Amino acid sequence: MTTILVTGGTGTLGRFVIERLRASGGHEVRELSRRSVQYPVDLLTGAGLADAVAGAEVIVHCATTPKGGADETAARHLIDAARAAGVRHLVYISIVGIDRVPLGYYRTKLQVERLIEESGLGFTILRATQFHELALTFARGLTKLPVALVPTGVRLQPVAVDEVAARLVALALGEPAGHAEELGGPEVLSLEALVRTYLRAVGKRRPVLGVRLPGRLFAALRAGGLLTPEHAVGEGTFGEFVGGAVGR
Question: Is the pTM of this model over 0.85?
Answer without folding.
Answer: yes
